[in-house]
Amino acid sequence: MESKKNQLRIGIDARFYGPRQKGLGRYVQKLIEDLEEIDSKNQYLVFLRKENYADYRPKNSNFKKVLADYKWYGLSEQIFFPFKIWQSRVDLIHFPHFNVPLICSAPFVVTIHDLILKKFAPRRASLLGPVRYWLKNLGYSLVIRLALKRAGKIIAVSNYTKEDVLKYFKAGPEKIEVIYEGAPEIKLKVRGPKRKIAILASPAGRQNSKLFEKYNISKPYLLYVGNAYPHKNLERLILAFNQLNQDGNLQLVLVGELDYFYRRLQKRFSDRGRVVFADFVSDSDLAALYQNAVLYVFPSLCEGFGLPPLEAMAYGLPVVCSDSSCLPEVLGEAAKYFNPESVDDMVGKISSVLGNKNLQERLVSNGFKRIKKYSWRQMAEKTLKTYLDL
């Protein structure tokens, strides 16, 4: 039995835990799941909100749930969460996002996924009035700056993110660790020219016909999965799609919860029946949508890691992607790149993949190789080492 003298009491801010919180939720969930498997020595306190408290079921007796029902980015996480941390007597705590309480009694590790709020924060990305918007951004900048200054260790999810942290906040490079996120396991048993995925004449009549009827899909389709924040660049994607789809033989399926930003897009392009707004979908439906798509398109202007294209590669989809930020670093030769600010370039690159079966197969093959570079288990192991170093 391990001596309690050598046992750390580690807190993890898991208020973002779960698929509803998109990439950040996936990161927190996979980190905890893999830490449960690799660390039987240290104790963990997992801080959750009411809405995801029941979603997490510890499988390791060293992991305990703690209710910390404090809204992200709100005053309660600045006023009450620090007291909860102090009360829990943790030796250190990991904040998987920049929203670290200004007062924190424990040493901490913070993960920076991106600096989109610093680099790409147009008014269109907010529902607030101009004064409140300015105050909100000022508050974010203060929180990030103090978090980076006070952190014992900083985890950046890519070299691109690390360089941004150094550029905008001049954080000490010696305390920044680049730890890539993971990628899904390959979902297909058949690969290469004989893979199950192919450009379909029509999905109708296949085993997933009820699914296609549910989402009003009747033609071969391009797929995008993610949110509709302005930096995701979906307006240009839809304009490009309408330009390349003059004959109406394709559809564009956008998967993401129909929040304000998606509804704004939906209203603008409501007369375009060829664009499907699928809303939030279950994991099983999402798998089927991946499996039957023609290709995956990711037009983002700014990312910190770029998990969705890797997920598409796991399903054997050719990926056509923006050449911005971290994406060439993460995806390498497994994607066809376009200038995300040019609709014409987007049209040209998507068309070049649609019309070239050999290129499709090469991208799929490269994708299977690329995702092997990233592992959630390896991410958890390196994160644990960061805790111990601190």
Automatic annotation (TrEMBL):
The keyword Transferase applies. One of its GO terms (molecular function) is glycosyltransferase activity. Keywords: Transferase. Transmembrane segments: none annotated. It comes from the Bacteria. The keyword Coiled coil does not apply. Residues 212-369 form the Glycosyl transferase family domain. SUPFAM superfamilies: UDP-Glycosyltransferase/glycogen phosphorylase. InterPro entries: Glyco_trans_1 (IPR001296), Glyco_trans_4-like_N (IPR028098). Residues 84-182 form the Glycosyltransferase subfamily 4-like N-terminal domain. One of its GO terms (biological process) is lipopolysaccharide biosynthetic process. This is Glycosyltransferase family 1 protein. It comes from Candidatus Portnoybacteria bacterium CG_4_9_14_3_um_filter_43_11.
